[in-house]
Amino acid sequence: MKPFSMFVTLLFTAIFLFSPADFSFAQSSIDLPAPVTDGGKPLMRVLRERKSERSFSSRELPSQVLSDLLWAACGINRPDTQGRTAPSAKNRQEIDVYVAMSQGLFLYDPLHHRLVLVIAEDIRGLTGTQDFVAEAPVNLIFVADHLKMEGMTGPQKEFYAATDTGFISENIYLYCASEGLSTVVRGLINTLSLGKAMKLRPSQRIILAQTVGFPK
Question: Please, which of 50, 127, 131, 206 could form a disulfide with 191 given CB 3.0 to 4.6 Å?
């Protein structure tokens, strides 16, 4: 290999391997740190401070914060039954949480508390029509998998997917209020373009998105 070609190869390898976050995104799956489930602000104070904000710093979330955020959203809090922090209709657990960051799009795997790489592309700008979504460090996309809702009618699937998404979203609001993070849930999404970019299956439906980051 010529010296210049070797230099370019090493440069791009370094860019890919070393991200601003605390872990490497070069793997197909990333084990998150164990969530810290103690501490935080008292519940009544968190409820008092819970709010939507639309101004975000571009600063990356540390891996521990991302870990705690996703566990709060819909992580497993009862390992013996694999119960989640958020309820779901008939325990179908049909809502998948995708995580769009500058390093790529990931799927949160609650069972193993890890991120699974979906595509190594920055699609944050497709997660909503607002300007801030492309610069905020994390955009969560809530996707319902209708295959997990067999036996329900079409209207029931839509209703329960919406309510179950609401439970997850509110968990995120409460975590952000406790940790001093900014967040806002969003419905202004071009679901056709985003779904195509996410390579979703026909049985999957985008419900909402939610942006999370440090205050600007």
Answer: 206
Question: Of 29 and 140, which is predicted with more confidence?
Answer: 140
Query: What distance in Å separates the CA atoms of residue 171 and residue 52, rounded to the nearest whole number?
Result: 13
How far does Cα 160 stand from its chain's mean position?
20
32 neighbors 115 (Cβ within 8 angstroms): yes
What is the rounded CA–CA span in Å between residue 62 and residue 42?
23
Structure tokens at 96: 């998948």
Average pLDDT over residues 187-198: 98
Question: pTM of the full predicted structure?
Answer: 0.88
Mean pLDDT of 58-76: 98
CB 94 within 8 A of CB 103: no
Contact 114, 103 (CB under 8 A): no
**What single-letter amino acid sits at 62?**
P
Burial group, residue 17, by CB count within 10 angstroms (0-12, 13-18, 19+): exposed
The amino acid occupying position 106 is: F
Tokens 């008939």 belong to residue: 90
Distance from chain centroid for Cα 133: 13
Share of the chain above pLDDT 90, in %: 87
